[in-house]
Amino acid sequence: MIETRHEFLECGVEMAAAFLPDRRVVHFEFRLYAGAAHEPSERLGLAHLVEETVTKGTERRSGRELSDAFDAIGASHSTWTGRECAGFGSTCLPEYLEEALGLHAEFLRTPTFPEDACSVAVELAEQEINSLNDEPRDLCDKLLARQTYGEVLGRHVLGEPETLKRITRQDIAGFWQRMYVPGRMQLVLAGPVDWERTKACVESLFAGCGGAKSSGREPFTFQFNAQRAHHQQETEQEQIGVCYPGVAVPSREFPIERVLLGVLSGGMSSRLFTEVREKLGLVYYVQAWSEHPRGAGMIHIAASTTPERCAETYATLLREISRLADDVTEEELERAKTGLLARAETRGETTSARCAELGNDLFHYGHPVSREEKLDAIREVSVEDIRRYLHEHPRDQLSVLTLGPSQLEV
Amino acid sequence: MEGPFAHHRLANGLRLFIEPMSGVRSVACGYLARAGSRDETPETAGVSHFLEHMCFKGTPRRSWERLTADFDRLGSIYNAFTWKDKTAYYGWVPVDELEPQLELLTDMMEATLPGEEFDTEKQVILEEIAQSGDDLQHHLVDLVFEKMFAGHPLSWPVLGHERTVGRMTREQMAEYHRSRYSADNLMLIVAGRVDPGEVISLAERICGELLGSGGQTHREPPALREGTAVQQLKRFNQQALAMVFPAPPAGSEHEEDAQALAAILGGSNSRIYWNVMQEGLSASAGATHLDFHDCGLLAISAICEPANCESCTEALQAEAENITQNGVLEKEVQRVRNKRRTSLAVEAEAPYYRLMQLMDDIDYHGGPRTIEQRLAAVDAVTTESIARCLEKFPITERGYFVSVGPRDWPEL
Questions:
Q1: CATH class of the region B6-207
Q2: B237 touches chain A (CB under 8 A)
Q3: What is the chain A residue with the closest CA to B338?
Q4: What residues of chain A lie within 8 A of the CB of B339, using their CB?
Q5: Cα–Cα distance list, A325 to A79, A317, A319, A321 (Å)
């Protein structure tokens, strides 16, 4: 049975589907190459404002009527903005797929950006920035990203108060006009999808709106900044954020890195949880993960603790990062691999997870990659691979940010 | 029992519920202990949650290192949570791993609470309490419960207090554990690609040794208070506001009405979304129905700029008054039904989602409910039934107004 299919349609939309014929729902997502990194530097926050306002009115319906139309078919609808893309997704019963696609095409193609919706979106973005300042973990991640990735990829999607103030309805409509074209669109579906029928539907929905030439897929480059900074804030806990370069998703070393992250932070028997939390009781929260702008990778490690225990927590985190190359065991490796493989059958098996996986394949590889191929690559990782990876990617250049009432003494 | 479920009671009193699911490759199972913060004493506030952590810290058959390594060897997605009236432990694994998964979870029910681990884990809990102190929403929820249920155990925070956790002894916890984690106070729930007969045999073998009987659960229904409470916390930038009213308990006549009302008032594409958030008064506002077996709450809440407290509160009150006076529209009720149809289809494809729902159904509705039964329940909601619910549980009077943030508002 064919697992997936992928095609650039005549209208310009890049479309792919994961065929899951027995499912009771379809999940799909339009991903547009129109994220924070595409914004003019004096209009930061613009991509998110377009995402917020594009659904607030079309040539045919008011924003409220559009939401009612989604609800009339029971389609749950969600939107997001990231560094390089914005996403518009829905989950619906299979019989409503074409109707739901039609509603997406309606707001993606014919938004009216009502003046009041634009000004409210700016106002709410300013409030969300204030709210983010009340969330120490998120604020630490935001400041660390800016420090590490630099001016373009380090932008926060909410923008900055001073750049938001400048954004007008005209800016919003202009960004939409340049960016929301079929050539920058990727549509990914998962579930009981009829390819030919869905393709014909999408072709007709996006026919004749121009901008069919594939664009916006060039990766952004950045220079990793190994810096250390402290953000003073009156909080009960001190936030610690550490990051250093990893590998890009298409890299042959990516499966090795995934397993390594499993060893470091996969389950409750992983290194960080065991050493920092369970043996020493230093933290409640400790985590490692990777982030992947297209063509790049970054390993993140984070923890939060009360200020007097911050130095010991930080030292323990560094010790765990550095000693891995010397003492990672076969047993730890097997546990981490099992975790990754098993999750493909549990959490990774839901229709929305399958859709997200395919979307990520297109984003990073430019085409679908067979699940079995990815799982085989995990199965093949050996302790020697891990050691070689750690040897070839020294963790001596770190970007570090602490946030809280007292500066970390190192 | 009706429907596709299997139900079995072991000799030691443990009740077992099984839902076989088709079209999935995994199985989720979990223990539900009738042990939450409302079962604690003022001196032991936080013991249920602390015990939940300690169940991962050593069992008669495994050290904590071995226990977590064994979970991870299965590739399990496992964890636990504690709430006011329950503690749950669960694992979600590929279908072949059900047996070892059940062994591990059962082992945890007999946790040995090693003294040294007790002291270390206490530090972790104190860090968790400190972390919650940096969370505005957490302050709001704690204050709502503290005031609304004043004098009743539901008023205590699930995490306990720094003081009570700091002073807690291993012996106090052991006593609580003995009285709460007996087989007759636990339920075992399994959902996924399983054969019920095989699961029952497994449970007979693995869970049959759990101690039969502990203390009796005795829960007094609370009297809900009215009033206004303000907690000024200058270090936050935004103000969190909530208007909270008595609402139908779980499993009672108007439960579905209250849920539909909360969705129409403050869910996605709701009145509050369009008339409060999209008027720029709050970036985060909504309504929630929260219920227990003997009481319920309907909370209308928002996070706003301190300068917007008055206008945001007025707008929320206006929505409550409007819906009370004019009722809900048929098309609004229909939207709730439509959305439920899709969310139930999503739930049916993941054993973990089903497990969480079954835990609620069994605890609050006396037994599991099929997807079809839950669909029928929401289909039975009408504009009239919501009006009757509002008459019985008004949302314009008899509530508590709570405000937390940098402003000392309203002045009391």
A1: alpha beta
A2: yes
A3: A74
A4: 71, 74, 76
A5: 40, 14, 11, 9
Output the six-digit token pair for B312: 């945001």
Q: Which residues of A touch B235 (CB under 8 A)?
A: 234-235
Per-residue pLDDT band for B94 (boundaries 50, 70, 90) equals: very high
Is A147 an 8 Å CB contact of chain B?
no
Q: How far apart are CA B387 and CA B257, in angstroms?
A: 9
Give the ipTM of the model, two decimals please: 0.96
pLDDT at B3 over 80: no
B366 backbone φψ class: left, alpha, beta (φ>0; ψ -120 to 50): left
- Rounded to a whole number, what is the distance in Å from the CA of A114 to chain B's nearest CA? 12
Q: How far is B124 from chain A (nearest CA, A)?
A: 5
Listed in sequence order, the residues at least 6 apart from A173 whose beta carbon sits closer than 8 Å to its beta carbon are: A113
Helices vs. strands in chain B: H and E counts, helices first: 15, 11
Dihedral sign from CA coordinates of B252, B253, B254, B257: positive
* Chain A positions in Cβ-Cβ contact with residue B92 (cut-off 8 Å): 346-347
Under CATH, domain A228-404 is a member of which superfamily? Metalloenzyme, LuxS/M16 peptidase-like (3.30.830.10)
**Among A91, A120, A280, beta carbon nearest to B342:** A91
Q: CA-to-CA distance for A83 and B360, rounded, in angstroms?
A: 38
Tokens at residue B248, please? Answer: 């139908």
3-state helix, strand, coil in chain A (%, to 5): 50, 20, 35
From chain A, the residues in CB contact with B73 under 8 A are 334-335, 338
Tokens found for residue B219: 């829960």
Q: Are strands A76-81 and A86-92 parallel, antiparallel or unpaired?
A: antiparallel
Which top CATH class is B227-405?
Answer: alpha beta
| CATH tag for A4-206 (out of 3.40.50.2300, 3.30.830.10, 3.30.420.40, 3.30.450.40) | 3.30.830.10
Mean pLDDT on B377-402: 96
**pLDDT at residue A316 above 70?**
yes
Q: What value, to the nearest 5°, has the Cα angle with vertex B360 and ends A341 and B134?
A: 75
Give the residue from A257, A243, A314 showing the smallest Cα distance to A280.
Answer: A314
Q: Is A133 on the interface with B (CB under 8 A)?
A: yes
- Contact yes or no for B283 and A124 at CB 8 A: yes
Rounded CA separation B114/B59 (Å)? 9
All residues of chain B having their beta carbon less than 8 Å from the beta carbon of residue A234 are 235
Give start-end residues of each CATH 3.30.830.10 domain in chain A. Answer: 4-206, 228-404
**Cβ-defined contact of A25 to B339 (cutoff 8 Å):** no
Cβ contact A23–B23 (<8 Å)? yes
Q: Which pair of structure tokens corresponds to residue A387? A: 């050691």
- Mean pLDDT is lowest, of A400-409, B226-235, B287-296, for A400-409
Task: Work out how many CB contacts closer than 8 A connect A with B.
Answer: 189
Chain A touched by B135 (CB under 8 Å): yes
Residue A306: closest CA among chain B residues belongs to which residue? B127
The helix (H) or strand (E) run that includes residue B231 is strand B227-232
What is the domain partition of chain B in residue ranges?
6-207, 227-405
| Share of residues in chain B with pLDDT > 90 (%) | 94
Q: Are B187 and B15 in contact (CB under 8 A)?
A: yes
